[in-house]
Design goal:
OB fold (Dihydrolipoamide Acetyltransferase, E2P), Mo/tungstate-bd_C_term_dom, binds adenosine-5'-triphosphate, 20 strands, Rossmann fold, alpha+beta, 6-stranded mixed β-sheet, about 25% helix, ATP hydrolysis activity, 2 domains
Length: about 375
């Protein structure tokens, strides 16, 4: 039944099996209207299957998918208020840009007036900044421009949801960063719901306003980019979204004192059942200093590797009793002589409340 809904897309207990393979297990998800959602996870976790069930290219084995309050099970792709941009664009090579973008509108029944088609195509090309390219042939366009043609074609019939399946995967790094900003701007201008599939955490964090982290057919965490990065729900999310140092530990009987593998006790400011645990610490939460430690918990260690990344430097530091740590140091306050060299002895210091603690059974 149609109803006014503030959710554009809803999954209600959706499971999808392909024969003996279960791609998605019992997923429940609400995506508000106008949101930019990223489905993020490793290869095979089920994100494309979710996207294809929204698009109508697959049907759920169990449960229901709703768009704007209407149940979509059994409704074919072409009757859904949804369009999809594929990884390899799927443009018609023998058509020019304008013909590619107009194609869907020309197929509509009842027919749309030619003047209206031209007006909408011109508007869509303007939105993706290809105003002057209407007559160009596809093979005369760069990869980034072809990507924009695919976007124009997907928005020209004004869908209420746009699905993007790894849309930037074929572009080089620099172009990809530029397109990330453009996609975000386009989504704000159009005000429609975008659902992006990616295995690239940086892409998900930088573009989306809601990130859905998936693994093995299930949702591990749903939240803003900052929430999933700063407060990962489990060790999988902590590892997959950004880098993390894992430290073996034991939660003591009081449920608040965490004893690290080298005997150091810290108070991370959380409560957890006593027993084996894993402490997770982001590389940028650790201060690396020579000579003396800064406030907080600190360890002595030895630098084993240094990776110069331009605006930051990554260090690997071996700490007795705890193993290797990865540390990211911002270069803003550093000059060349401040760069620590492999072989040097250093102090690693961190605020114990920056440590996330998970039961070891979660590993
Ligand atoms: P990738 O990033 O590699 O595209 P994904 O997270 O999008 O992966 P899906 O493509 O949704 O994952 O696949 C989820 C699981 O379902 C995988 O185990 C995959 O092999 C399986 N699968 C997907 N499509 C089919 C199909 N048509 N027939 C059989 N199994 C399939």
């Amino acid at each position: 039944m149609a109803s006014a809904s503030t959710n554009d897309i809803e999954f209600r207990s959706v499971t999808k099996n392909y024969g003996a393979v279960t791609a998605v297990t019992d997923i429940t998800l609400n995506v508000p209207k106008g949101a930019f959602l990223a489905l993020l996870g490793p290869s095979g976790c089920g994100k494309t299957t979710c996207l294809r069930m929204i698009g109508g290219f697959e049907q759920p084995s169990e449960g229901t998918v709703h768009i704007d309050g209407r149940e979509m099970n059994g409704i074919p792709a072409y009757r859904r208020p949804v369009n999809m941009v594929f990884q390899h664009y799927a443009l018609f090579p023998h058509f020019n840009v304008e013909q590619n973008v107009a194609y869907g509108l020309k197929q509509m029944r009842p027919r749309m007036a030619a003047a209206e088609i031209s007006r909408r195509v011109a508007e869509a090309l303007e939105m993706v900044r290809l105003g002057g390219f209407a007559k160009r042939r596809i093979h005369e366009m760069s990869g980034g421009q072809q990507q924009r043609v695919a976007l124009a074609r997907a928005i020209v019939n004004r869908p209420s949801v746009l699905l993007l399946d790894e849309p930037l995967a074929a572009l080089d790094k620099k172009l990809r960063s530029a397109m990330q900003i453009e996609l975000q701007t386009l989504q704000r201008e159009l005000g429609i719901t975008f659902v992006l599939v990616t295995h690239d955490q940086e892409e998900a964090l930088s573009m989306a306003d809601i990130v859905c982290v998936m693994s093995a057919g299930q949702i591990r965490q749903l939240g803003t980019p900052q929430e999933v990065y700063d407060r990962p729900a489990d060790l999988f999310v902590a590892d997959f979204v950004g880098k993390t140092n894992r430290i073996s530990a034991t939660m003591e009987a009081d449920g608040t004192t965490l004893r690290l593998a080298n005997g150091t006790a810290i108070m991370p400011g959380i409560r957890l059942l006593p027993g084996k645990a894993i402490a997770a610490l982001r590389p940028e939460a650790i201060h690396l200093t020579r000579g003396k430690a800064v406030a907080g918990t600190s360890f002595k260690g030895m630098v084993t590797h240094r990776i110069f990344l331009g605006s930051s430097v990554e260090y690997a530091v071996s700490v007795p009793g705890l193993g290797d740590f990865l540390i990211t140091a911002d270069r803003r306050s550093m000059n060349e002589s401040d760069l620590v060299k492999p072989g040097e002895e250093v102090f690693l210091s961190f605020d114990p409340t920056a440590v996330h603690v998970f039961p070891a059974s979660n590993a």
